[in-house]
Amino acid sequence: MIVTDKKPRQEVLDALKDYHKVFVIGCGSCAAASRTGGEDECREWVDELKKNGKEPTGHFIPEETCHVFLLKSMLRQSEPAAGSDVFLVLSCGAGVQAVSAATDKPVVAGLNSMFLGTTYRAGEFLKYCSLCGSCVLSSTAGICPVTRCPKGLLNGPCGGMVNGKCEVDSDMKCVWVEIYERLKSRNKEKILTMVNKPKSYGNIRHQKVEPKKLSKKAL
Amino acid sequence: MSKLSEALKNKEFVITAELSPRKGTIVSNFIKTVNALKDKVHAINITDNQRAVMRMSSLVASYLVLREGVEPVYQLTCRDRNRLALQSDLIGAATLGIQNVLALTGDHPSAGDAPEAKPVFDLDAATLLQTITKLNNGFDLNGHPLKGATDFFAGAALTPQTEPLEPVLLAMERKIHAGAKFFQTQPVFDTEAFASFMSKTAQFNIPVMPGILLLHSAEQALNLNAHVPGIKIPDPLIKRLETASDPHREGIAIAAELIGNLKQIAQGVHIMTVGQEKDIHTVLERI
User: Fold this and answer.
1) A184 touches chain B (CB under 8 A)
2) What ipTM was reported for this prediction?
């Protein structure tokens, strides 16, 4: 689940300043669950646009906005969308770019994409994964330091750990202490004397932008 | 072989002091301080954008120290440079004749004067030490051969007064595996607690130099306790600074006493100040 956050109102209005007719596109999956791109939030923006002298031409909420073909077909069928100057998209970056790929019209992002969230319970998300392309969880007791250590350290704790807390936020438990405790409970803490190799960023760079087909890749 | 490594090998009581490069191009006072410490310390550590506050490059400032005939300990953090920049700076440092390096992870930018900066941390202290070991063996991190190897004496940092201690000791062991030959610690104020820490590190048989931080007022001490990770100044010391007629002199006396006590426990000390660099030689005269 991609967790998103509303951009500051003024930042969005600034991005819309050259346009008059604005069509709003939400997202029925992650952004709706994040309460940033569902029906209520789309209507909130329609009202806001009116208040600011714009002409909201309508809105729709695709089941998933990160789907270029779905977007193309919905946009083809929508006259108000076709008559608009710009699309205000309330979804994650993948959704904003799907709209951008499905139309020649300009798009404005209404949200900031924050992280891949683990749902704790409805409306509460834990920042557990950052889609880094080379998973280390097998050697870190199932707890991700790439995401949960502010320095993304593969060999912690660092000198900023004080009484189990993180130097960046003294209310936050050091994730490397969590990893240590988990390993200790399994009598595996000695693996922390081994050096984890530097991360490879080769996996996430130079990715083709052409659609990547799903394949049954052998191990 | 660096003088620092030789002194540690010969079991001398080794003294290093720490200087921060200037924020700006005027270095006359910095050079004066370096010369005031000449022959009084074994080496001078040069911090690398300490506490994530931007200053002159530690590589250049280390070279300025070397040019004055004093041995620098070039501090290098992983916060601001990726693995390419770290290695090229290390090769540059070795070429300039810098022999000691302290490999650090580095404070997070949020602590400093450019909190919006992108934190790099492509490597960390352990993998930086491994990289230095490889450069010393004539290869880069990826195993490509160098035309001329480095010959660094590499050290690392330690936080002795924290809980839980076991992950710190495990990380210490990891740094030793990675190539650390000595350790310098965060400021120590409690000799007994430090002695107990040292008994836990005896198994590694590696020099550990406790940090000595000069204090000049009770207010400063309280401030450090509140804001600097890993610093724990005990109440009796704060009381001494509070009641002293000249807290500045009392701070120097406290440092000299601590060094005297630590002589029995450790193989050296590492003296740090917050802008009180001129006082380091006064402390050294008292021990």
Assistant:
1) yes
2) 0.93
